[in-house]
Each structure stands twice: as structure tokens, then as C-alpha cells.
Amino acid sequence: MWQKKTHIHSSLEKKEKQYDLFIGRFQPLHFGHQQMFQQVLDKGGNVCIAIRDSEVNEKNPFTTTQVYANISDHYKDLIEEGRVKVIKIPDICSVSFGRGVGYDIVEYMPPTEIAEISATKIREQMKLNNNEKDSQDTV
What we know:
- The chain is 37% helix and 23% strand.
- With 139 residues, the protein is an alpha/beta fold.
- Strand 2 (19-24), helix 1 and strand 3 (46-53) form a beta-alpha-beta unit.
- The radius of gyration is 17 Å and the shape is elongated.
């Protein structure tokens, strides 16, 4: 069971066409991310997935364009319905806000089996799979 902790409560009423914003690298999009978004979608809310425009490196093996395409493909139907939006944002170092921001600041805490999902481990497995494929291709 996911726990939800609201750190800041909005002074404004939530409107039907507003979105819950999730910022991340999504390198790659995995089941834990999907389940986090699903917490909002299951309650009839909308999700905006903001992809940080990070440089490609060991921790970010995919370009922002590749991540955008992957997420957009996965959520194609919900994007068409207007329930999910996918955007690119600059590579940020903090999320800052002023008082009376007009939106909630919420933390979703996953159950243990979801919290243990690691994008780092997924990337390592993908790298192993590619190395195995490359060695099979040369035989």
C-alpha cells in the first residue's frame, strides 16, 4: 500500500483539468514509476511527467528524446485522452517554491517491493543483455 504525505497544502481548490507533476530522469521508465503515476490516475487525477534534460552518461544512458519517446509510447492512450502529458524540462538541481504557491507538495512512499526497484540495477541488466547480444552477434 502506497503512503501519501502532503508537505504543503494548497490554499486553492483543485480543478478538474489540473495535473500532478512528477519530475525525474526516468532512465528508464520502470514499474515503480508507473505505479507511482497510477496512484494519481486511479483517483481520477491527471499526470504531467517532466523529464529532466540530463547529459548522457553512465547514469543516464538514454537521451531525453529517447526517454520522451519511451514514456509517450507507453502512455499513448492516456495522452490522447488528456490524462497524461509528457514534457521536457532543463536539468534542475532543486525544486523551490514561495509561500502560498497554490498547489500541494506531495510525497508518494511506495510499499517495500516497489521501493526496491532500482533503475541503476535495470540499467546494469540492460547493459549485460546488450553485451550478451553483441557477443552472440559476433559468433
